[in-house]
Structure to design on (483 residues):
């Protein structure tokens, strides 16, 4: 199958979150399958200039955005079996950051992703790649399915092209005023609620949901929540219910070449599901030393690696840290909300031997926290899929998670009254500070019982979080989409 992936980020080229991990890993997985050709389109952000192997496609092409015409060039790299094309336009993409400045989103994000979406379609023609499917990700590429069904409807180049839209997080919808609809060049008769219109403006995500041949999200449970729990759909639940037959959930995987405690060169000593009890404490000791916690491998360590964002519910954890810090150490890596950053910083300053906080993006420390902790805290309000809990499990660090979205699909919660033959972590039953504290208490009660604890660790480490099954599920969905 000839596949185009269109996204605003993909690891290792540009990353702000889990979206990048998913697009990168899935592209590679699909390209590795016989008979598939995968072309990935990304914006040519400023950091891309640094790629040494970058080649330029000769020539340029032009895209209308609002009342003017923008020039686009394509550069590319071969990345394994995937060819990655970078959509170049200095005005829109040669900037210090991907989406925003410190003061908020770029004011012309509508134009930037109108240009990108249309440049992907024109780019296919420019390089002569006629896709069977264009797999779009999130609002930034939501207009691509809409263009295919409107402006490009009669374009012979795309007669066999279908589209799939994946919603990685419905909270981000790309909602813009009516003027953005005009800038995108759609016909005014289509400005109706059943197509583009959304609260008087245009939502790029809604447009994608309306026009894509199929829509999916990143876990079956999140797909259910988006249709059935009003607060979870952020206004789009009715539309998703309407698209129900063509809407499903496929759980993400993790890249097990990057996330494998046995081969992870950032750890002092690798470990697997047999050697963890001997070697994992060495990682704990290194972590304690590195971030200034009291060096004592007997003390349980709770790790947090997360964006500090409303979604993640981490304001609820602050009093829990304060309550438990004498018994438990906390290793917190995360940045985002400046108020929360400050609160974590202050707590770490108050109890330096028990609580460490690092407020930046740090891949290396992330690995060390996943490996050096005993428990991993993720009290999310909502969680489309979540990668961190899967990484934690792979590293034998038991997740404590709320029972929402993909967390409910990927963690098997310990229950006191069951045999726990498959348990891999702990569910925080309610979204509250008390429930987090109660769950921590329950987990600590088990920490001393090495027989049960080690069984849970083993279960967690042996859980298959790889992309194999999920990539197969996507491929099956592609086949259904183009049929
Ligand atoms: P989301 O995409 O909502 O941020 P996920 O759990 O799906 O959450 O993915 C988060 C990814 O980002 C994980 O790979 C996690 O390790 C990583 N991450 C989050 N915060 C940091 C940080 N401060 N430093 C390094 N990696 C981080």
């Amino acid at each position: 199958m000839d596949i185009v992936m269109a996204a605003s980020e993909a690891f290792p080229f540009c990353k702000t979150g889990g979206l990048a991990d998913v697009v990168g890993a899935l592209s590679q997985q699909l390209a590795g399958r016989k008979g598939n050709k995968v072309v990935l389109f990304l914006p040519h952000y400023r950091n891309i200039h640094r790629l040494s192997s970058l080649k330029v496609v000769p020539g340029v092409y032009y895209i209308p955005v609002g009342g003017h015409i923008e020039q686009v060039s394509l550069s590319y790299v071969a990345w394994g079996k995937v060819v990655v094309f970078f959509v170049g336009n200095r005005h829109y993409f040669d900037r210090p950051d991907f989406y925003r400045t410190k003061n908020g989103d770029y004011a012309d994000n509508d134009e930037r992703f109108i240009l990108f979406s249309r440049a992907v379609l024109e780019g296919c023609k420019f390089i002569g790649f006629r896709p069977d499917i264009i797999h779009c990700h999130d609002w930034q590429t939501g207009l691509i399915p809409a263009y295919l069904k409107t402006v490009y409807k009669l374009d012979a180049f795309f007669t066999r092209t279908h589209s799939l839209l994946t919603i990685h997080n419905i909270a981000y919808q790309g909602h813009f005023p009516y003027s953005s609809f005009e800038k995108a060049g759609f016909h005014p008769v289509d400005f109706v609620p059943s197509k583009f219109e959304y609260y008087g403006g245009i939502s790029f995500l809604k447009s994608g949901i309306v026009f894509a041949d199929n829509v999916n999200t990143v876990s079956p449970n999140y797909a259910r929540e988006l249709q059935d729990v009003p607060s979870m759909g952020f206004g789009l639940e009715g539309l998703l219910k309407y698209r129900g037959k063509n809407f499903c959930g496929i759980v993400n995987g993790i890249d097990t070449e990057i996330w494998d405690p046995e081969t992870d060169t950032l750890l002092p000593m690798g470990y697997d599901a047999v050697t963890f009890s001997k070697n994992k404490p060495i990682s704990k000791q290194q972590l304690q030393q590195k971030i200034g916690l009291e060096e004592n491998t007997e003390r349980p360590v709770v790790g947090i690696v997360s964006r500090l964002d409303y979604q993640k519910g981490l304001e609820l954890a602050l009093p829990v840290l304060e309550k438990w810090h004498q018994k438990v150490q906390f290793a917190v890596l995360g940045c985002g909300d400046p108020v929360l950053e400050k609160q974590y910083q202050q707590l770490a300053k108050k109890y330096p031997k028990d609580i460490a906080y690092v407020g930046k993006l740090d891949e290396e420390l992330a690995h060390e926290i996943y490996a050096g902790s005993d428990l991993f805290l993720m009290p999310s309000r909502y969680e489309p899929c979540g990668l961190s809990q899967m990484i934690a499990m792979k590293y034998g660090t038991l997740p404590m998670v709320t029972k929402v979205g993909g967390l409910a699909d990927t963690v098997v919660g310990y229950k006191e009254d069951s045999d726990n033959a498959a348990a891999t972590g702990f569910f925080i039953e309610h979204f509250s500070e008390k429930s987090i504290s109660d769950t921590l208490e329950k987990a600590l009660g088990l920490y001393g019982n090495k027989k049960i604890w080690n069984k849970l660790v083993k279960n967690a480490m042996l859980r298959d979080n790889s992309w194999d099954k999920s990539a197969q599920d996507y491929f099956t969905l592609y086949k259904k989409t183009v049929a």
Summary: Residues 113 and 140 are 6 Å apart (CA to CA). The domain at 2-253+468-482 is CATH 3.40.50.2000 (Rossmann fold). The chain has a mean pLDDT of 96.
